[in-house]
Design a protein that fits this description.
- The structure holds two protein chains of two kinds.
- Chain A is built from five helices and six strands; from the N terminus they run E-H-H-E-E-E-H-E-H-E-H.
- By secondary structure, chain A is of the alpha/beta class.
- Chain A has one domain (3-164): P-loop containing nucleotide triphosphate hydrolases (Rossmann fold), CATH 3.40.50.
- Chain A has a six-stranded mixed β-sheet, sandwiched between helices.
- In chain A, helix 4 (127-131) links the parallel strand 5 (110-115) and strand 6 (137-139).
- The radius of gyration of chain A is 15 Å and the shape is globular.
- The model of chain A has no long low-confidence stretch (mean pLDDT 86).
- Chain B is α+β, with helices and mostly antiparallel strands.
- Chain B folds into five domains: 1-49, no CATH class; 60-139, no CATH class; 150-283, Beta-Lactamase (2-Layer Sandwich), CATH 3.30.450.70; 312-382, Histidine-containing Protein, Chain: A, CATH 3.30.1340; 389-519, 2-Layer Sandwich (60s Ribosomal Protein L30, Chain: A), CATH 3.30.1330.
- Chain B is 58% helix and 16% strand.
- In chain B, strand 4 (215-221) and strand 5 form a beta hairpin.
- Classes of the chains: A alpha/beta, B alpha+beta.
- Chain A binds chain B through residues 1-5, 27-28, 32, 36-38, 40-42, 53, 55, 57, 69, 71-72, 74-77, 163, 166-167, and chain B through 161, 163-167, 179-180, 182-183, 186-187, 190-191, 193-194, 196-197, 262-266.
Chain lengths: 171, 522
């Protein structure tokens, strides 16, 4: 059984918890997020015939007052950077977080998620802005459910490939 | 290389060749020479290896290198300890000193826990059972206490990768209420981070126990893994040691897999039996609470019951004594009774004093009070009270007795009051009036029967007529003298009186009479 720890990071209010709620049936109360700063969920997925258990660490959103608790990132195999398409500043925050995480954990797989696709006509984030980073990107709507499954499965595929590469002989 | 033939050639012939050789191979020869000298020189070779050794080890930080180095390091360590043990002791002191202090603290905690538990059990019914078991089996009492007192059950055990918080292996009892162990292990790791971030803890300090109600958590830590368990009931202190030993074994056996863990948990399936061995327990923890309640009830309930019983008995005794006291008071205030002594000897009350025969009967008063007659002894000397009521009563009795001694005599065959007897009428009438008056003063209503009698001579019919006539004549005479008729009743014949059997005439005179009987005076 292959298991991977995945962290959901992003500015406060970008929809991280809503995305997780769309993807899994949680057993823990969401108040955990405001008390200990993290809520953990589990999702078993299968990609290309390979099973993977994703342990999703939904980290409390970073804002002016609260900083991301890097100790929760320890041991993560990948992460999901979430930005709100309606707020361009959240994309900048996502980029800033990506740099900090890379400094802390090294280069590990991740995907960028631009959420709130259901409000596309109100988006401040332009495609060109996203493209400049060159990161694997998904557009999702936690409200409508579009793109959520694909995003998680996409990250799972990246993780499986990364795992296979690290386990290959000669490494 | 030069050959012997070449050496025999003239030097002039070799000159151009040597120059050519110098031109073509000169720099290489110098380099080869330099290399040869470096290889032949151990100190220079050591310098070369030293310059790349760290990088070489970093590049080959795999199991093969570790295995290759292991015997060397062990031997070096052994030699170091043998040659200079103090150096190693100094180096390890910061680690071992702390570990030893921690172990001693844990041991003391365990002792305190056992001691308090033993004290808690000491006076319970269960402890008596254990003492009996100790006597019966010959085992020390302390051993029996340890065997029987700590009731707990390890319901779930989690082996968690320390860095990622991912669950490596999990074991649970059938009875355990298991939520998703993957998420539980993740949250557990997060909570440890939370605690560590929330309070300043020293390096190496970890969250070791968590408790909520009847459920507790035991957490033990290794370099790469955490072994934790949910424990229901009161776990013995050495349970942490069991967990730590298990974790140490797993860390040793799976060192490579733990160190290079990338998410593949199937490698830890073989650890499951070790985790299942940790699902130990003793007794039923629920039973402990019930028994503890019973012990508590025995410990505190029994003395409480005794105190309540004593208090109840004391209150009851006081109430009874109060009733006896009230009775004595009533007796002493009773007319015609003088109480001189009231005391209790053993379970019996003694009441002594003076009592007028006309006074109330103490036994009757005792009965009316509802007090037991077998718990009392009366001793009253008789005396005549000067109470006016008693004097009047006594006077009434005297008047009664005087009247009942009076009688009118009649000649044979006659019912007329003889003239020599008539003078008695005034006297008897006065007596009767005094008697009525005395009785009225005492609130009594009396009745006086005038009874006619006859001698044995004559027929029964005649005698009966004579007796009636004599009674009626006396009654009429007395009424004529002012005695109220309502208070007099002529009784034809005194049936209660024995038949007058006198033979002589002077004796028969007494038979032919009319006498009096007072009704309503004791």
């Amino acid at each position: 059984m292959l298991k991977k720890k995945i962290c959901m990071v992003g500015q406060f209010g970008v929809g991280k918890t809503s995305l997780v709620r769309r993807f899994v049936d949680s057993i823990f109360d969401e108040r955990y997020l405001t008390t200990i700063g993290v809520k953990i969920d589990r999702k078993d997925v299968s990609v290309d015939g390979k099973s993977l258990t994703l342990m999703l660490w939904d980290l409390a959103g970073e804002d002016d007052l609260a900083q991301l608790n890097v100790s929760h990132l320890r041991g993560a195999s990948g992460y999901i950077l979430v930005a709100d398409g309606c707020r361009a500043s959240t994309l900048e925050k996502a980029a800033e977080l990506q740099q900090r995480i890379t400094q802390t954990l090294g280069p590990i797989p991740f995907v960028l998620v631009v959420n709130k696709a259901d409000l596309r006509d109100q988006w401040e984030v332009q495609s060109s802005q996203v493209a400049q980073y060159g990161w694997p990107t998904f557009e999702t709507s936690a409200k409508a459910g579009s793109g959520v499954e694909e995003m998680f499965l996409g990250l799972a595929a990246i993780l499986i490939r990364s795992h296979a590469a690290s386990e290959a002989p000669g490494q | 290389m030069p050959t012997d033939g070449a050496a025999k050639r003239p030097a002039a012939d070799d000159q151009p060749l040597a120059e050519l050789r110098a031109i073509l191979l000169g720099p290489d020869r110098a380099a080869w020479e330099s290399m040869r000298q470096r290889l032949d020189n151990p100190s220079r070779r050591a310098e070369d290896v030293a310059s790349v050794l760290a990088e070489a080890v970093r590049l080959r930080s795999d199991a093969k290198l570790r295995r290759a180095l292991q015997p060397l390091l062990e031997e070096a360590l052994q030699l170091s300890v043998q040659s200079n043990p103090r150096m190693l002791a100094d180096a390890l002191f910061p680690i071992f000193g702390k570990a030893i202090r921690k172990a001693i603290t844990a041991e003391l905690d365990g002792m305190l826990q056992s001691l308090s538990h033993t004290l808690e059990q000491r006076f319970s019914w269960r402890s008596l059972r254990w003492r009996w078991e100790s006597i019966r089996t010959g085992k020390p009492y302390a051993e029996i206490v340890l065997l029987r007192s700590l009731l707990y059950r390890v319901e779930q055990v989690f082996l968690i990768h320390r860095k990622t918080g991912l669950l490596l292996q999990h074991a649970a009892t059938d009875a355990a209420e298991t939520k998703d162990p993957e998420m539980v292990s993740g949250m557990l790791t997060a909570i440890q981070d939370f605690v560590r971030d929330s309070v300043s803890v020293a390096e190496g300090e970890n969250l070791e126990t968590v408790r909520m109600g009847d459920i507790g958590m035991v957490l033990t830590y290794g370099p790469d893994a955490i072994l934790s368990g949910f424990v229901r009931g009161v776990a013995p202190r050495n349970l942490s040691r069991v967990f730590q030993d298990t974790l140490d074994t797993i860390e040793r056996e799976k060192a490579e897999a733990l160190h290079s863990f990338t998410g593949e948990t199937s490698e830890f399936d073989s650890c499951r039996p070790r985790l299942e061995a940790c699902l130990a327990g003793q007794g039923k923890p629920g039973e402990r609470k019930a028994t503890s309640r019973m012990a508590g009830a025995l410990l505190f309930g029994l003395p409480a019951l005794v105190i309540i019983a004593l208090a109840g008995w004391w209150i009851y005794s006081a109430a009874v004594e109060r009733r006896w006291s009230n009775f004595a008071h009533r007796l002493s205030s009773e007319p015609g009774i003088v109480l001189t002594s009231f005391e209790k000897r053993g379970g019996t009350h003694y009441l002594a004093g003076l009592r007028d025969p006309l006074a109330a009967d103490p036994a009757a008063l005792l009965y009316a009070e509802g007090l037991p007659s077998d718990k009392v002894t009366f001793h009253f000397e008789e005396y005549h009270s000067l109470q006016p009521s008693f004097a009047a009563q006594r006077r009434l009795v005297e008047l009664k007795e005087e009247l009942q001694r009076r009688a009118f005599r009649f000649p044979t065959g006659s019912s007329a009051i003889p003239p020599e007897q008539r003078f008695l009428l005034d006297d008897v009438a006065a007596q009767i009036l005094s008697l009525i008056k005395a009785a009225s003063a005492l609130g009594r209503t009396i009745q006086i029967e005038v009874r006619g009698n006859h001698d044995p001579a004559g027929t029964e019919q005649l005698n009966s007529m004579l007796a009636r006539s004599r009674a009626q004549n006396v009654e009429a005479a007395l009424i004529s003298l002012g005695v109220p008729a309502a208070r007099l009743a002529a009784v034809p014949e005194d049936k209660e009186r024995e038949t007058c059997a006198a033979v002589k005439e002077e004796e028969r005179l007494f038979c032919r009479s009319a006498s009096f009987r007072v009704i309503g005076v004791p």
